Amino acid sequence: MTETIVISNQKGGVAKTTSCLSLGGCLVEMGKTVLLIDLDPQANLTQSLGLKPEDMRRTIGDVLLGNTSMVSVSRESSVPGLDIIPASQELLLLDKILYGRTNYQFRLRDGLETMEQGFYDYVLVDCPSSLGTLTVNALTAAELLIIPIQCEYYASRTLKHFLSMVQRVQDKTNPRLTYRVLVTMYDMRNNICKVVLGQMQQGLKEALFETVIGVDTKLRESPAFGQPINLYAPNTRATEQYRALARELMDHGSKELTNHGEEA
């Protein structure tokens, strides 16, 4: 079974794209096949794998408009087992075009359902830092939402606002959607980071990943070389942290399958 995971937060600069690319690379390293979908008009994920958005003849926008299929738009990356459906700035216009069309929330889900089940183990979707039609499409299509968040003073307020939207999606279009919170860009030298992390561990409990992603300059460098962190700097601390995240994610999925089997 393919698991669709969305990486999203309405706040920018929290390592959404970095986490999508790094997690995808580490899952492939562990023998999984992964499709990355770039839903952000900035197309940073597309560029992070060495592709030029302006050169793309077809993008995820064509799928959402119903003009083509996921398979026909997907492209192999330089990493075997890691494919991508690219984005371009045209998504800015598409975000407005989709709104108001009948069942616009289900365009991405419908596109994914046309793919052969199990062709990919994971689909990872990188979203824009906005709560528009693109993000709603992603949340409607997903089983799991990963919310990257920094340990900042106002983090809990931002998270609370975002989760209210998640609740609306669960109520209206996707009752199966669950979420987990991932601490990113953690600076252990900063006292406020330690305080906020402690608060999150108490308040979020099982919704919070045990893995914490620290500040690492290699994470900022790897997209410039068109590689996930595990290939660009395989021995760095950040690589080990994203590997730990991949293991935690896979273990979480295995536990859910086991629980469902016991219930049956």
- Superfamily (CATH H level) name: P-loop containing nucleotide triphosphate hydrolases
Q: How is the biggest beta sheet arranged?
A: 8 strands, mixed
Alpha-beta content class? alpha/beta
Return residue spans where pLDDT drops below 50 for at least 5 consecutive residues.
257-264
Compressed to H and E, one letter per element, the order equals EHEHHHEEHHEHEHEHEHHH
Task: Provide the number of structural domains.
Answer: 1
- Can you count the helices? 12
Q: TL;DR?
A:
This protein has 264 residues and is an alpha/beta fold. 45% of the residues lie in helices and 16% in strands. The protein has helices at 16-29, 44-48, 60-64, 70-73, 91-98, 107-113, 133-141, 155-172, 191-204, 217-221, 229-232, 237-263, and strands at residues 3-7, 34-38, 75-76, 82-85, 122-126, 144-149, 178-186, 208-214.
Q: How would you explain this protein's 3D organization?
A:
This protein has 264 residues and is an alpha/beta fold. It has helices at 16-29, 44-48, 60-64, 70-73, 91-98, 107-113, 133-141, 155-172, 191-204, 217-221, 229-232, 237-263; strands at residues 3-7, 34-38, 75-76, 82-85, 122-126, 144-149, 178-186, 208-214. The protein has a single domain (3-258), classed as Rossmann fold. It contains twelve helices and eight strands. Strands 3-4-2-5-1-6-7-8 form an eight-stranded mixed β-sheet, sandwiched between helices. Helix 1 (16-29) packs across helix 12 (237-263).
Please supply descriptive tags for the structure shown above.
disordered C terminus, 264 residues, Rossmann fold, globular, 12 helices, alpha/beta, eight-stranded mixed sheet
